Amino acid sequence: MLIKRPPSYHKLFFFRGMLLGMTVTLKHFILNLLRIRKIPTIQYPEKKRERSARFKGKHILTKKLDGSIRCTSCLLCQTACPARCIKITPSEHPDPKVEKFPISFQIDLLRCVMCGYCEEACPVDAIRMGQEYEWADYSESSFIMDKEYLSNRPALQGGVISKVNS
Amino acid sequence: MTSHSEPKAKNPMVKITADGKVIEAPKGGNLLKALLDNGVSVPHYCYHPGLSVAGCCRMCFVEVEGQPRPLISCNATVTENMVVKTQTETVKNIQKWNLAFHLINHPLDCPICDQAGECGLQNYYMQFGKYESRMEEEKVKKRKVIPIGDHVMLDTERCILCSRCVRFFDEVPKTSEMAIFNRGDRSEIGTYEDKALNNNYTLNSVDICPVGALTSRDFRFKRRVWFLKDIPSICPGCSTGCNVTISQDPIEKRTYRMRPRFNEEVNGYWMCDYGRMRYKHTHRESRISTPLIKKAATLIPTEWDETKHELFTIFKTPASQISVLITPQYTSEDITHIYDFFTKTIGTQNIFHCADSHLASDSTVTDELLFRRDKNPNSQGLLKISAHYKLQEQNLSLFQQKLKSDPWTILFIFGPHDLEAYPEFLSWFKENNSLKTKIYIGTQVKHQIPLFDLLLPTLTFIETEGTFVNFKGLSQKLSRGVKLIPEAKPICEILC
């Protein structure tokens, strides 16, 4: 089948499109160079943007007033998690009033999609999404956060105490 | 099962109307049972079809035309042409505020309760409750986490005093170990001075408990019930062949519990504690995980291709030198395949079975309810199949005699899945000069492991589909669950 092609001189017309593009670039260049338009550039590693209180960052396991972990290991966060990144092993607590507690609590940050469903599913305010978002690292195994890290890492400055239901 | 079972064929069937639907029920029978059997849902806690009627939970109210006020259907009898209404405003109101009374002193510790997900209070609250609590008084605190017996954990706070467990121990094992103590809102269930429950049927009380007051110590905190998938199966613990439901987690690939499934002809609503623990030998850690082959006097893990090659050379030896020993813990299909393969493909008649024909058809129960002496699920099936191949006379004692006299070089052993049923298995077995190659096909093996030259992992009753024949000769079907050991293969793939 024969396809009618445009005549070859048509390809010289790209100069018009290119010049149009260049004018847009030039306009932005001048506006920013002369600070006519104030764009909010943040000098990132030195200065950081303020996050909203509802920001969903690295997870935190909260504590009770006595400093023990609040989680009762009901596994509702694990059930709600769409990425299956939470793994909890429940165990018998020596105190019959506590009865059940997580002997291990792991979150795989590489699997986590930061949806915050775990925070919503928790009936006792034991898991929260924090403010941290910088977690680059060298090995994959260092992205699996355990119970100690989730509740007591240095960034939390002694841990977060939840007073709900206490 | 119990003396309180419903009157059966002798009562004529009559027609009654329930919510505009015409259903048939035996005249003079229990109204609630008739409604539930015909798919009319009526909430209830204290009524259980295998127990007597208590009428204390007050949930199963229905309206009957001609009666001045609503009545509890579990204590009503079916009469001809009665018109029952279960969905009227009055009935719904009764159920709603009755539930509020049940929940007055309930601790609402669902996050730590093992019953959550299959709890009567949770289900009925979502279906009939949904009220705002008007209770202003403090909840009455009661005792929690009391172990009663090896299998049951008691939590008196969660109890709604339906008295199912009390009636169960009174009527089924007839040990009368549980009772309701104290009065009013301080009433609680328990055993006298928290004595341990001491019979073989304690875990049935956990099944029938509609709330989390009685929970299983074995299943305690292991898994939440909504992760589990139920598989209908048959208990491999003894020759009774109780119908069970196996709960497995298909993602974790692990079995968590076994519970009875109703079958009027075999086990009714119950099963024993010994049988319930039979799922434990299917766990990964107690099984042969890969094929093992003996090289330079040590057993090393190997690939299936290599064992296939090894078996191929073994099958080339003269048929008269090959002998086989089968334990009655395999399904009838597997046993048929073994007999078929060795008699027809290999051509040997040296196939021996471990079934005891007296024990297999012994119908006496050791504990006057369900448990029988023969701890094999399929002795009858094995005997029937061996009789079909005219080899029923070749039993274990003949095998032991012939082992000394006959010049066998190859021995295949189809070992038991459950070593507790055979504590003495192969203890009589000694090194024999003429036997060159000993092959063990099974799922578990303990101290006899250095005896064998080739160990091949196969599947347990949970992972295979098939039939068990119980002591009465009743064939019952097993369903296939998740494969727990990826390397294990069914018998029909090993022998081919």
Polypeptide structure, described:
The complex is a heterodimer of chains A (166) and B (496). Chain A is α+β, with helices and mostly antiparallel strands. Chain A is built from four helices and five strands, in the order αβαββαββα. In chain A, a hairpin with a 7-residue loop joins strand 2 and strand 3. The radius of gyration of chain A is 27 Å and the shape is elongated. By secondary structure, chain B is an alpha+beta fold. Among the domains of chain B are: 89 residues, Roll (Ubiquitin-like (UB roll)); 211 residues, 3-Layer(aba) Sandwich (Rossmann fold). Chain B is 20% helix and 20% strand. Chain B has twelve helices and 22 strands. In chain B, the strands form six sheets. Chain B has a seven-stranded mixed sheet with strand order 15-14-20-19-18-16-17, with helices on both faces. A five-stranded mixed sheet of chain B has the order 2-1-5-3-4, sandwiched between helices. Chain B has a three-stranded antiparallel sheet with strand order 6-7-10. In chain B, helix 8 packs parallel to helix 10.
Q: In CATH terms, what is the architecture of the domain at 284-494 in chain B? A: 3-Layer(aba) Sandwich
CATH class call of the domain at 284-494 in chain B? Alpha Beta
Number of strands of chain B: 22
SS content category of chain B? alpha+beta
> Into which percent range does the helicity of residues of chain B fall?
10-25%
What spatial order of strands do you see in the largest sheet of chain B? 15-14-20-19-18-16-17
Residue fraction in strands of chain B: 15-25%
**Class by helix and strand content of chain A?**
alpha+beta
CATH architecture assignment name of the largest domain in chain A: 2-Layer Sandwich
CATH class annotation of the largest domain in chain A? Alpha Beta
Strand order of the biggest β-sheet of chain A: 2-3-5
Please indicate the count of domains of chain A.
2
